[in-house]
């Protein structure tokens, strides 16, 4: 698997947290706390999404389901899972830390 694809998956929590912090900067009372909580929580989401995507990819090969044969497919599935699981939590965190 190319290094660029691996580093993209590894940096996705940080990039997503930075993007969410930029969007919510003026709305939250403590932007730095929002950034730290976002990064830590998305790293937890990544620990669920990446193995799940790899397991899906391996399971597809074992069950003779049509597989793309491309390891980049695993990264795309992991990134989509991370977005699906992470965005609602970031929304909740922004609402919890909003200015009064």
Which percent range describes the beta-strand content? under 5%
- How many structural domains in the coordinates? 1
Distance between the termini: 47 Å
Beta-strand segment tally: 0
The global form is: elongated
Distinct helical segment count:
3
Cα radius of gyration in angstroms: 16 Å
The helix/strand class is: mainly alpha
Name the poorly predicted regions. Answer: 63-67
Could you give the order of the helices and strands? HHH
Overall mean confidence score, pLDDT = 77
The major beta sheet can be summarized as: none
Helix content: over 70%
Detailed description of the structure:
The longest helix is centred in the middle third of the chain and has 32 residues, at 31-62. The chain contains 3 helices and no strands. The protein has helices at residues 3-24, 31-62, 72-96. With 100 residues, the chain is an all-alpha fold. 79% of the residues lie in helices and 0% in strands. The relative contact order is 0.20. The model is unreliable at 63-67 (pLDDT under 50).
């Amino acid at each position: 698997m190319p290094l660029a694809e691996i580093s993209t998956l590894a940096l996705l929590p940080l990039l997503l947290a930075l993007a969410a912090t930029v969007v919510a900067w003026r709305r939250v009372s403590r932007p730095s706390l929002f950034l730290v909580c976002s990064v830590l929580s998305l790293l937890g989401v990544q620990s669920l999404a990446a193995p799940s995507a790899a397991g899906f990819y391996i399971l597809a090969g074992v069950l003779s389901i049509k597989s793309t044969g491309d390891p980049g497919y695993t990264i795309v599935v992991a990134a989509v899972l991370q977005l699906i699981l992470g965005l609602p939590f970031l929304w909740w965190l922004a609402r919890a830390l909003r200015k009064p």
